[in-house]
Write a structure and sequence with these properties.
Length: 273
């Protein structure tokens, strides 16, 4: 290949006595960026921005647990006979949908505890969530995992032979689906911020818009992936799941957007976000 994206030789970085696992490091960077953006979104909604870090202390652990649970449930065959690997998160394997669901449950209880409007809060969380995913996806790059079909495109991703599926062992470059999803999530962040500033959606529906926009991207990216996954009727489980999420979210958005919006409700200030 004249042009291609090289993969890192290792998924970790040795810093003296400390080994930094890049998968976890990228997730941590995503969380930090998300907390920063949440604070700005909360401020624009009249919510104390300190709640961004407080909320993160609830939703991040819940999200990681939910993401791992979702991954194990939808890919349980991989863990048969090796269930101890189910808790080895640093080796990769987090299902975003499970993380979002568990995170939203944690957010609900946080809002009850602090007497916050859950709809306003999750609207502030939505673009921050997409930003966290945008950055966190690079963890898959360092693990050389979740790549797509072979390709000769200039941005093909080099994968070590030991990391390739056996049926593709002779191939050298593959679709960098981690990069596709990272870029898609960046667009989702921009879209959600723009929608928030327009102020046209009833409170709470910005998170629904997240589910729609993310699901659209996830469906075409999922169709490119060749990593081992549970299937139903010949299709990857995640394709079915995100199809259902997309349809359900579209219905909720359609029904919810027909509600009357307070004409005195101002759009978000353009200086935020």
């Amino acid at each position: 290949m004249l042009m291609s994206i090289p993969s890192p030789s290792s998924g970790s970085l040795d810093l003296g006595p400390i080994t930094l696992r890049m998968y976890g490091f990228m997730i941590a960077l995503g969380v930090i960026a998300a907390v920063w953006l949440m604070g700005k979104r909360f401020m624009s909604k009249g919510i104390n921005p300190d709640h961004a870090s407080g909320l993160a202390m609830w939703i991040v652990p819940a999200g990681i647990i939910g993401a791992r649970v979702y991954h194990v449930i939808t890919d349980w065959r991989r863990f048969e006979g090796n269930w101890d690997e189910a808790v080895q998160i640093w080796r990769g394997g987090l299902g975003i949908l499970g993380g979002v669901i568990f995170g939203l449950v944690a957010a609900f209880f946080y809002c009850r505890k602090h007497n916050l409007d859950i709809k306003e809060v999750i609207d502030g969380v939505a673009p921050a969530l997409a930003l966290a995913q945008c950055i966190g996806r690079w963890g898959n790059y360092f693990n050389q995992e979740l790549f797509g079909r072979p390709t000769n495109l200039p941005w093909g991703l080099e994968i070590d032979q030991r990391k390739r599926p056996i049926e593709y062992v002779a191939e050298e470059t593959f679709h960098p689906t981690f990069l596709y999803e990272s870029l898609w999530n960046a667009l989702v962040v921009i879209l959600l911020i723009k929608l928030g500033k327009l102020g046209k959606l009833p409170s709470g529906l910005l998170m629904v818009a997240y589910f729609i926009s993310y699901s659209i991207g996830r469906l075409w990216i999922e169709a490119l992936r060749i990593d081992e996954a549970s299937k139903l009727l010949g299709l990857r489980i995640n394709i079915w799941v995100f199809t259902v999420v997309l349809i359900a979210s579209a219905v909720i958005l359609f029904v919810g957007s027909r509600q009357n919006i307070d004409p005195d409700q101002p759009a978000e200030p353009k200086s935020t976000g």
